[in-house]
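New to this. Help decode the following:
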Amino acid sequence: MPASSDTPAPLARFGAWFARLLNVVAVISSLAVTGLMAFLVVARYVLGLPVVGLHELIMLAAVVLYMTGAMIASRKREHLTVDWMAGVISDPRKKAAHDLLVAGLTTIITVFFMVWSYRMFAWGMQRPQVTPAFQIPLWVPQMAVGVASVVCFAYAVRDVADAARRLKDS
């Protein structure tokens, strides 16, 4: 996210660093999913080797990939939206009001997302379960969901603040 003129420099530096981190995690998890899946196919169908537990690792990498993608989309303001209305609005004040409404609704939804992920994580800690082959605790992929919910909430709050500032300035 490019720093606006009113964004403090340390916050802008942290945002740039975090964006690079998300991109690195997305690339690594994409490579992990692709590489592990290719290895599974070759091992099983070409070499005839049974591979135990690989699905667990693929699942973990896929959860990280999906949640990282959600965070990247929120950072870039490219998450799923219906933008027909936004395209029709030409008045800057009405556009800012529309953006504030959308950002407010997104913030509310991300609060539900955070509560749900917290409850899921808490349930997993109360009733610890692990994957069958590698005994990976299920809270590991659940933690990826929780982190994504908090980060998406933070980006939604950023969007509310930005839209409110534009509404005030117009």
Summary: The chain has a mean pLDDT of 90. The radius of gyration is 20 Å. The chain has one domain: 9-169. DSSP finds five helices and no strands in the chain.
